[in-house]
Amino acid sequence: MSFNERFFQMKRSRILLIVLFVVLLATIGVILYLWHQDKQSWAIERANAATSLEAATSKWGSPVYCYTVKTGVRSGDLVNQNDLQQIEIPSIIDSSYYVKDPSNIVGKYYKIAISNPTILTNDMFIDDKVTDDMRSFDISLTSYSTGLKVGDYIDIYFTAPYGDRYLVLSKLKIRKISNSGLLTCYLTATQRHIYTGALIDYYLNSDYGATMTGERYIEPGMQQKAVEYYQVPENIQALLHYDPNVTADEISELDASQAQRESIERALAIFRTNEDTVESDAGKLKAGRDATTALINTETQAEAAMNNVDVGASELWDDASGAASDAASAASDAASGFTESSTPETESNMDGGDYSDTGTTDTGTADTGTADTGDTGDVAQ
After folding, report:
1. What are the backbone angles phi and psi of residue 91, rounded to the nearest 5°?
2. CB–CB of 111/126 below 8 Å?
3. 138 and 183 in contact (C-beta within 8 Å)?
4. Domains recognised in the chain with CATH numbers
5. How crowded is the C-beta side of 221, counted as CA atoms within 13 Å?
6. CA distances for 102 relative to 65, 68, 69, 111, 243, angstroms
7. pTM of the predicted model, to two decimals?
8. How many helices (H) and strands (E) does the chain have?
9. By the 8 A CB rule, do 135 and 378 touch?
10. How far apart are CA 69 and CA 71, in angstroms?
11. Half-sphere exposure for 322 (CA within 13 Å, toward CB)
12. How many angstroms separate the CA atoms of 120 and 113, rounded?
């Protein structure tokens, strides 16, 4: 190939490279231009979206923080802080029923089963755990702390004639106080049996000065539940083994402390004489139960009259007043050891020291069990 031919060939190659380079630059330029246009369009769309979101937020209001559960919970489970998950809802939604402060529910119990993302409402919780065997139960005591009110907590003591005190049931929450002095509490099947056992001891020894009293906790949120150490009579202990509503653990615990019953029997045997027969015991038990039944019926009829149940209200009220008088007389005959006093007392404890009871309120008689006037109750006789 001649020199001229090689020269022209190299020249064409350079021209081709220049053309390719120009084309590449043009392509890059077009791509950059289109990207810039898309970027501007995207920025405009984002600005429009932000404007629309701001308008929507303004329309629906600022967010309100409520709560749901992280995972499913069951009815009766204890509410823990770790269970809860914070969520947002628009303020335009009525959130007055929703839980906004978790401290108001932590430590309570779930009333129903709840799953995520159900928003928690204030009526989904209860203060105390309610078990299947728990019932609303009316209790009548010889006396209880002056100034006792609904929401307070009490211990129930049986006191033998010579002052031997036995804690029957501890830290019961007062749900209701009737005009006649009945106290409404929630009791389990086991607690109802134990209470019935204490009533038997009380009825048989009230003539000698035995009492059933209620003592209020000062700061129930700070004070631990007292340890119970009363033990039921042998026949009630046997019944606990047959009641399917009493758990095996509860039976084992009661069986383990059955030796305590010997101490109670010794304290009560001091007053037993040859005149104390099965027939005389039956009379004392019947008198006590009749007095309490009259008191409960009085309260039931009085409430029925006040609520204008489909009977003559005035007739019910007259009957209730008459029953109240009969109940008071029967209570006086059945339990001569009762005193009527509302002034503060100071009693001596078993250790020889004094403690302030803040006073006691006499209620007239001790209960054999109840018929609940608000819910389904039990009558233990």
Report:
1. -70, -15
2. yes
3. yes
4. 63-126 (3.90.1210.10), 135-362 (no CATH)
5. 4
6. 11, 10, 11, 16, 40
7. 0.60
8. 7, 14
9. yes
10. 5
11. 6
12. 11
Smallest Cα–Cα separation from 285: which of 371, 206, 204, 213?
Answer: 204
Beta strands in 111-162 (DSSP E): 125-126, 135-139, 143-145, 153-159
Q: Answer whether 142's CB lies under 8 Å from 158's CB.
A: no
Token duo for residue 89: 């809802």
Q: Which two tokens stand for residue 145?
A: 């702390």
- Residue keyed to tokens 């309120």: 361
CA distances from 287 to 271, 277, 319, 335, 364 (A): 19, 15, 20, 9, 13
Dihedral angle of Cα 74, 75, 79, 84, to the nearest 10 degrees: 50
Which residue's structure tokens are 């038997």?
Answer: 200
Q: pLDDT truncated to tens, each residue of the chain (381 aa)? A: 666 666 667 777 778 788 888 888 888 888 888 887 777 777 777 777 777 766 666 666 678 889 999 989 988 888 999 989 999 888 777 778 899 898 888 888 998 899 988 999 988 998 888 888 899 998 989 999 999 999 999 999 999 999 999 999 999 999 999 888 889 999 999 999 999 999 999 999 999 999 999 999 999 989 999 999 999 999 999 999 999 999 999 888 888 888 888 889 988 988 888 888 888 888 888 888 888 888 888 888 877 887 765 444 444 444 544 544 454 444 444 444 433 333 333 333 333 333 334 444 444 444 444 434 334 344 333
Look at residues 196, 179, 175 and name the one whose alpha carbon lies nearest to residue 375.
175
State the angle between helix axes of 234-242 and 248-256 in degrees (0 to 180), rounded to the nearest 10: 160
Whether the CA torsion 25, 26, 27, 30 is positive or negative: it is positive
Q: Which residue has the tokens 């042998």?
A: 234
Strands 346-348 and 165-173: unpaired
